[in-house]
Design goal:
CATH superfamily of chain B: START domain
Shape of chain B: globular
Strand content of chain A: 25-35%
Order of helices and strands of chain B: EHHEEEEEEH
Low-confidence stretches of chain A: none
CATH architecture of the largest domain in chain A: 2-Layer Sandwich
Largest interface: A-B, 31 and 23 residues
Strand order of the largest sheet of chain A: 4-5-10-6-7
Order of helices and strands of chain A: EHEHEEEHHHHHHEEHEEEEEEEHHH
Largest sheet of chain B: 7 strands, antiparallel
Strand content of chain B: over 45%
Strand order of the largest sheet of chain B: 1-7-6-5-4-3-2
Oligomer: heterodimer
CATH topology of the largest domain in chain A: Uridine Diphospho-n-acetylenolpyruvylglucosamine Reductase, domain 3
Structural class of chain A: alpha+beta
CATH topology of chain B: Alpha-D-Glucose-1,6-Bisphosphate, Chain A, domain 4
Number of strands of chain B: 7
Chain lengths: 281, 152
């Protein structure tokens, strides 16, 4: 179907883009992998679309003392294939390689994905496990939020009208940290029925550090704190994974009932922890 | 699709029940509701503008209240339709007294059809629960506002 008429702007600078967005009415177009299909179905009928594709300085991957900075317009494919990320933050590269299909990964961007905040998107699991930061720009101020504060609920983020995600910052992994993303794909859409990201490091024969993020199961991705503390204190993967869906109201749809999803969360958490541990050295 | 859940409202049962019957309160608490008017006994006409992510839908329809057993609960029937699809909800609300606060339990059936159900099937469950949560959050805020007024 053809979208309804809309005004279309292609700002050439970030400042210009923010000025166009200042009234809070315009819709931001990044890679367009979520917005365009919705517009074609006329489920989304924005009056004004601000296309960021000509805004420079938003598609970088670079490393400094604070971590690895990833520009909002960096595509999933660029993240998946980045030598910097492959070497220093393999969890994010691995997670990106599981998103949708080749076409989506070539067009879709990390900034677009996190701002859209689909409850079954892949990145949130990894970004929670990585304790990532989100840089946000508005017409009058810039701010940085932890990803867990940024993620509010289903399709809801802490972005105010008129604000843009400009950058995601993830830590460069210390040597000895192992990570893994394990996912059950919805066969048609490629979205996560359940996706689990885990990071683990050993210390003195035990577990020194664990971070687990789970997506697809609930109305938003979450950190599985109970899994983390059980693994850290007992080292028992099975016991830890059993707590993956504890206290969570699981989603239910045609592909997977709530009970099945909760079960999958345990299975995939165990797999992610196992693989992450096998990658520690 | 079946939905159920429990929320706690920080005022007593009689006042919670009254709050849930007040069309002005309902209009403020229902996410996106911009019009709710009495058209018959226990029957209201409503208009809602839903904005969830990029999807925006204008729904118009009816809200009906039946089987009242004050202050225990009542049955709420909501029907709406718009360009993007239609929805029907039929649920039972039960208020249980916890002395100074009230536990509201809801149990019901929601049907969503049309375009929005065709493409958004995997999101209906999450979105419905998200909207119900918002409704109760705002209801709680209304209750807190009333308590403050009473205290002043």
């Amino acid at each position: 179907m053809i979208p309804q008429d809309f005004e279309y702007s292609t700002p050439a600078t970030l400042k210009e883009a923010l000025a166009l967005l200042a009234d809070g009415e315009a819709k931001v177009l990044a890679g367009g992998m979520s917005l365009i299909p919705l517009m074609k179905l006329r489920l989304a009928v924005p009056g004004h679309v601000v296309d960021l594709s000509r805004v420079p300085g938003l598609a970088h991957i670079c490393q400094d003392a604070a971590g690895i900075h990833i520009g909002a317009l960096t595509t999933h494919y660029e993240i998946e294939s980045s030598p910097v990320l492959r070497a220093s933050c393999p969890l994010l590269a691995d997670t990106a390689s599981h998103i949708g299909d080749v076409q989506v990964r070539n067009m879709g961007t990390i900034g677009g994905s996190v701002a859209h905040s689909d409850p079954a998107a892949d990145y949130p699991a990894a970004l929670l496990a990585l304790e990532a930061q989100v840089r946000i720009a508005g017409a009058s101020r810039e701010r940085t939020l932890s990803f867990s504060d940024f993620l509010v609920d289903t399709f809801t983020t802490a972005l105010e009208p008129g604000e843009l995600v400009t950058e995601i910052v993830v830590p460069a992994e210390k040597s000895g940290t192992g990570a893994s993303y394990q996912k059950m794909h919805q066969p048609a859409s490629g979205f996560a029925i359940v996706g689990v990201a885990a990071r683990v490091a050993r210390s003195n024969g035990g577990i020194g550090f664990v971070r687990v993020g789970i997506t697809g199961l609930a109305s938003k991705a979450y950190r599985a704190f109970r899994v983390e503390s059980i693994l850290q204190s007992t080292g028992d993967i099975k016991k830890a994974a059993a707590a993956a869906a504890e206290g969570v109201e699981a989603n239910s749809d045609l592909s997977a009932s709530a009970n099945y999803r909760a079960h999958l969360a345990q299975v995939y958490t165990a797999r992610a922890l196992e693989q992450a541990l096998s990658r520690t050295s | 699709m079946k939905l159920s859940g429990t929320y706690t409202v920080p005022i007593d049962r009689e006042r919670t029940y009254e709050l849930l019957q007040d069309p002005n309160v309902l209009a403020r608490a229902m996410p996106g509701c911009d019009h709710l008017a009495l058209v018959g006994p226990d029957e209201y006409e409503m208009r809602m503008k839903m904005i969830i992510s990029s999807i925006q839908g204008l729904f118009s329809g009816k809200v009906r209240i039946a089987d009242r057993t004050p202050p225990d609960g009542f049955r709420l029937i909501v029907e709406g339709s718009g360009k993007v699809g239609f929805m029907k909800g039929d649920g039972l609300l039960r208020c249980t007294s916890l002395y100074t606060s009230t536990e509201v339990h809801y149990e019901g059936d929601v049907q969503v059809g049309g375009m929005i159900a065709g493409v958004g099937q995997r999101l209906i469950d999450t979105t419905s629960r998200f909207l119900i949560k918002k409704f109760f959050e705002r209801l709680t805020a209304e209750a807190a506002g009333q308590m403050k007024q009473a205290a002043d």
